[in-house]
Amino acid sequence: MNKRDLNERDICSKFITPAILKAGWDLTTQIREEVRFTKGRIIVRGKLVAQGQAFALP
Fold this sequence. Notes:
The protein is of the alpha+beta class. It has one helix and two strands; from the N terminus they run αββ.
């Protein structure tokens, strides 16, 4: 397995999350993954900022 061929999600799943669990962290109370802060994408163009429309998660 070449680590350079893995994406960010793969790296987290194969290396980071297991290391955190091995260190004694609790998966349900101490680890949150892919948390959304807004209902839509934040669009920045120069000094203008807008919030895009929310979309449904699969």
